[in-house]
Automatic annotation (TrEMBL):
HAMAP family linked to this entry: Trigger_factor_Tig
InterPro entries in the cross-refs: PPIase_dom_sf, PPIase_FKBP_dom, Trig_fac, Trigger_fac_C, Trigger_fac_C_sf, Trigger_fac_ribosome-bd_bac, Trigger_fac_ribosome-bd_sf, Trigger_fact/SurA_dom_sf
Name by which UniProt lists this protein: Trigger factor
Origin organism lineage: Bacteria, Pseudomonadati, Pseudomonadota, Alphaproteobacteria, Hyphomicrobiales
Organism in which the protein naturally occurs: Agrobacterium bohemicum
GO cellular component: cytoplasm
Subcellular localization, as worded in the UniProt entry: Cytoplasm
Length: 490
């Protein structure tokens, strides 16, 4: 077999592979000899079929299998033998001339095929001593724990019917019928609907007009739907809701005690506080972790600069670009609405894709050199987490991971990356800094405010975080039958 390099330009490689016809004939003869004792042909005893006859009947199909096997298996062997790693699946090209193909199958011509691929660049790891990060830590106070418990307790709060007028915090039970231009609209009616005044569940202005009503009252409430309301036929329209108040109830006081803990499924108030403290600490820890990780990767981004395989960047860019366009379509916006152009956006996201690929290669090299491995148990936990996210679709998800080549890599990659970050944290300079929760969350809050004005920019930030191991949170879809009167709080 001859292996001839025909292109070595940057990361691009092309290799011409030639397997002489004599070698192909030898391989074919071996296969035929092996098949001789196994095939059953009428008129011949087992093992007595003449080789010429066997070749005439099965030679072409056996040779076709040989060619397929060689083209399938040899590329990885060749690339590995060259001390290279292919960034993507190599592209393989062969003759398309029918006559030439027939000669190859008859072992009369050499088998030739070409591999085209990009190599993963050699990465010379550098010392991590210069990497320094600030790890922000929030001390959880008793006051914050109690405040969170009271919020959780809203689900267990009881209400008692009261005489007199409804006030902020009271629960109003009512029937209502909404009309636009005098016509009732779909989703604008309900009976025995319960609404806590001040909860923000209904469109702006609705709840304010319930203050002062009492059981038995009938009232017309006039509101205007927000201009960005999801239902286009209602957006920006004035609506009148005819309501009949059935009941007004005041909220019973909530005390943090063993009774409340029992209602929430825990044995004691002490245990409730312990659980809530753990939840708050976990939330802050996640934010702290991502901030530290971002600092690490920003510094790695400065240290490691090299050409990245275009194929990997193209694939990453397409993933990002597909999501961006989906988000814009769902929001009914264009690039112009985001103060940019498609060309500028493409350039921005292309740079983002290149950064993600480069950092991914760096982390992979660090992890490989450090002997980082992902265990089967960790993979199983990740798969179980996927199954939990999509109840009722467990079979489809399992089939996907079983039958889709490379699908398991989507489970392995984030686990591997986090373990590499853990390894780096053992080697770099980490300084703990106690901050308030407002300081810890300030950066994310600022990004959120900007994102409200520039959704496209928000997605860029989300994808940048994804490059650093954060999964962009999916948008929660509104229930299909959500009443039109209700707002976006749910």
């Amino acid at each position: 077999m001859q292996v001839i390099e025909t292109l070595a330009e940057g990361l691009k490689r092309e290799i011409k592979v030639v397997i002489p016809a004599a070698d192909m004939k030898s391989r074919l003869d071996e296969r035929l000899a092996d098949a001789k004792d196994k095939v059953r042909i009428n008129g011949f005893r087992p093992g007595k079929v003449p080789m010429a006859h066997l070749k005439k009947m099965y030679g072409k199909s056996i040779m076709a299998d040989l060619v397929n096997e060689l083209v399938r298996d040899k590329p990885s062997e060749i690339i590995s033998g060259r001390g290279e790693k292919s960034a993507t699946q190599p592209s393989i090209s062969m003759t398309e001339d029918q006559d030439e193909a027939e000669k190859i199958l008859a072992a009369e011509s050499d088998l030739e095929f070409t591999l085209a691929y990009e190599v993963i660049p050699a990465i010379e790891l550098k010392s991590n001593e210069g990497i320094k990060v600030i790890r922000e830590v929030v001390e959880v106070t008793e006051e914050e724990i109690n405040e969170q418990i009271l919020k959780i307790a809203e689900s267990a709060r009881t209400y008692e019917t009261k005489k007199g007028k409804a006030a902020e915090g009271d629960r109003v039970t009512m029937n209502y019928l909404g009309k636009v231009d005098g016509e009732a609209f779909d989703g604008g009616a309900a009976e025995d609907a319960e609404l806590v005044i001040g909860s923000g569940r209904f469109i702006p202005g609705f709840e304010d007009q319930l203050v002062g009503v009492k059981a038995g009252d009938e009232k017309a409430i006039t509101v205007t739907f927000p201009t960005e309301y999801p239902a286009a036929n209602l957006a920006g329209k004035e609506a009148v809701f005819d309501i009949t108040v059935k009941d007004v109830a005041s909220a019973a006081a909530v005390e943090i005690n063993d009774d409340l803990a029992t209602k929430l499924g825990l044995e004691s108030a002490e245990k409730l506080k312990e659980v809530v403290r753990g939840q708050i600490e976990s939330q802050y820890s996640n934010v702290t972790r991502q901030k530290v990780k971002r600092q690490i990767l920003d510094q790695l981004d400065e240290v490691y600069q090299f050409d990245t395989p275009a194929g990997l960047v193209d694939a990453e860019f397409e993933n990002i670009w597909r999501q961006i366009n989906t988000d814009l379509a769902q929001s009914g916006k264009t690039f112009a609405d985001e103060d940019t152009t498609e060309e500028e956006a493409r350039e921005e996201y292309r740079k983002l894709a290149e950064r993600r690929v480069r950092l991914g290669l760096v982390l992979s090299e660090i992890g490989e050199k450090a002997g980082v491995e992902v265990t089967e148990e960790e993979m199983q936990r990740a798969l179980f987490a996927q199954l939990q996210q999509f109840p009722g679709q467990q079979k489809e998800i399992l089939d996907f991971f079983r039958n889709t080549p490379g699908a398991s890599a989507s489970l392995r990659a984030p686990i591997f990356e986090e373990k590499v970050i853990d390894k780096l944290l053992e080697e770099i300079s980490v300084t703990d800094k106690t901050v308030t929760k407002e300081e810890l969350l300030a950066e994310d809050a600022e990004e959120g405010e900007k994102a409200e004005k520039k959704p496209a920019k928000k997605k860029a930030a989300a994808k940048a975080e994804a490059a650093e191991g954060e999964e962009a949170a999916p948008k929660k879809k509104a229930p299909a039958k959500k009443k039109a009167a209700e707002g976006d709080a749910e």
